[in-house]
Amino acid sequence: MMHPRTITTFSAGLYLASSVAAAPLSCQVACSAAEIPRPVLFGAEIVSLDAVEFRNQSVATLQGENVWLSYCGVNITYIHPGWNDSINVEIWLPLDNWNGRFQGTGGGGFQMSSGPLGLASAVRDGYAAVRSDGGHTADSAADWALTSPGNLNYPLLQDFAAVGLSDMTILGQAVTQSFYGEQPAYSYCNGCLTGGRQGLMLAQRYPDLYDGILAIAPAINWDTFLVTEYWPQHVMATLGVYPSPCELGAFTMAAIAACDSLDGLEDGIISDPDSCTFDPESIIGQPFNCSSTSEGIFTAAGAAVAKAAWTGPVNPYGKLEWYGLNKDATLSGLVGTVAATNTSAARGVPFPVSAEWIKWFVARDPSLVLNNITTAQFFRFLHLSRNDKMITWHGLADQLIFPNGTRDYYERVTEAVPDVQDFYRFFEAPGVAHCSGGPGPQPRNELQALVDWVEKGIAPETLLTVNATLNGVVPGPGQALPTRNICAWPKRQRYVGGDPAAAASFTCV
């Protein structure tokens, strides 16, 4: 792989730390469309390029903070002739403290980016950054999925799936080089959910663009897992029963209570979900309460729904088609319900992306093309340059994306490429929910671990995780936050004694 190149970061909420000194800006041009030439993109036509300078601009970041930034904002609109698309790309270039790297920002669901929030988070840390709308700006797929009833909008689907990712990177690289007078030093990719899928797609289809990829909770096996996410809703509709959020939450708490200590420490986290054999049917008829005013009795229907969410879809021949959630994941993400005293008024609330995929993409054109795309992409991983590095971590309490699906992907890569750990490592984060949150400690500085691997050759055996609370309580002044190390797959975290808040009390086995 040739240097220098571009850093691409698809982030849904990660703090991107930088340790590279600000690059010299002696060759930096004015933030003006007259000074920044229109880049060339094969197969596309640049319609417009605009540039506006912002000084001391107050902007919000993905982390929920407001920061003051000075940057050059470049907007590019382009088309693919014959595709009837129009794509907008936005690039933010730090005016004073560029760190010599470049990030691309990605999104979630059917959105290609996280909007200005992702750009602000990157520029705050000294990166030049880019985002793309992929040719559609609406949250709902209903506005772009079909050209007419029964006919998929394949150009926009290709823009969303892969083409827009490459385009965005090439345009971002070119504008960054034109503005600063030099190419970025390294290339990285980082993201969660759709951003994680984008990272894996880039690694497989465009392996020459990036030095490192951090793909978190990737929404991969897209055609399979999105339909699978609807399975608990189908079970509830078939039974004609919609358990209350209170009962569903109580099933989760019962599972945690039964399996918490399997790792040797009771801390409200299931660190070894594969060993958790808790059966929801074992507590049917027992009482539960969610608050002083909300209580009930575990029902057979509730147990069936919980088991469906945990097991995954089983076909009429008894074959498990895909994975379910782990038992400590919040069920409300996929098993959303509106409970009512009048049973006929109760209903399910499906995860919107799953419901829209089935409605607008599968039911309208149930061809095998989309299924083949996802399956075939795995084999492209064989072309990943051994000079590239990639890290994926996935929270084991993820309530929306199935952790076992990510593990399955990594195991398939391992089967095809036995020396996979030379360039790709996978970590499971016990107790962490979808991309962040949950009772488990959150991975920190994982992008820096990727940078160290790419630039210094230091392969990560563990990732440091930090919990914002100590036994559910925010630590006081002088109290250190609890830390743990999560382990590179297939090793697992195990408590060996000592202070549960100290990383040294855990080992990888």
UniProtKB/TrEMBL annotation:
Its EC number is 3.1.1.-. One of its GO terms (molecular function) is metal ion binding. Keywords: Calcium, Disulfide bond, Hydrolase, Metal-binding, Serine esterase, Signal. This is Carboxylic ester hydrolase. The lineage of its organism: Eukaryota, Fungi, Dikarya, Ascomycota, Pezizomycotina. InterPro entries: AB_hydrolase_fold, Tannase/feruloyl_esterase. The keyword Metal-binding applies. It comes from the Eukaryota. Belongs to the tannase family. Residues 1-22 form the signal peptide. It comes from Elsinoe ampelina.
